[in-house]
Fold these 2 entries.
Entry 1:
Amino acid sequence: MSKPQFANAEQGETFCFDYTDYLSASCKKRWSFIDAIYGVIPIFGMVTRKAAASSQTDQEKLKALALQVLSTQVNDETNIIRLITLAGQQGLTRFDIQLPYALEGEQLAQIRQEVGPPLQLTQQDERLLIRLPIPNAATSA
């Protein structure tokens, strides 16, 4: 059985999402009917929407997509799960999420359960460190 490989510090810079900024921007956003559908059923938006500019970096694409699917209408765990899913779809393996407060153990457990292994999720005060396996990494047991 093979083990997933995770990016180490030398394999790329870690960037940080400020979760509070996303929630603030989401509150100020003028919602259309389609935006509301994407907010309630985010997988629809993840599959059908594409980043507007192909010259955007993966991080910029992820930030734009996150603004489309994060919602103040759902709990923080759901938003964080959506963000991790988007990052994985964009091929990002390392990023941090700056939260306005530290999550409780039950919240972290729910995120781990929903995303599933081999997610590496570490909390340092109000910062979540997310590590996803490297896509298509050839590993051996």
Entry 2:
Amino acid sequence: MNQRRVRQVQEATLPLLDPADTIDHVGLTKIGSVSVRRRLATTAAAAILSGGHLIAIAQPRPMYFALTRERMLFFDLKAVTGSPGPVQMQLPRELLSTAPLRRALLGLGLQTVLTIDGSHQAFALTFPPVAKPDARALDALLPRTR
């Protein structure tokens, strides 16, 4: 992520922080997963409806994240500008852990699973090739899933 985007995510995060809270890392990830069946259905439907002139591919939702000492915040991306939008999710940091990093996107990106202790919810996080440093930083800052 370039420095301008890092600054924008930090500026969006600062008003939401408690006085003692600080930002440890900000980055970009794609959250969630899309099944192969859904990808194929979306691609086929778009190709058929457009007469073969358009192909659409379903993919996980890109979001900025900010990891602070107390929590992890996920921000929507504004479609036109790419800047951070409203906060979509806030999770307490002490309840978070990650699975070991593994390759994704034909081996170009990285992927992990963010687990919330005491909950059955987990989120697949996929980091595109440009966000590999964000994946490694998050892996270093959060404990391993038990």
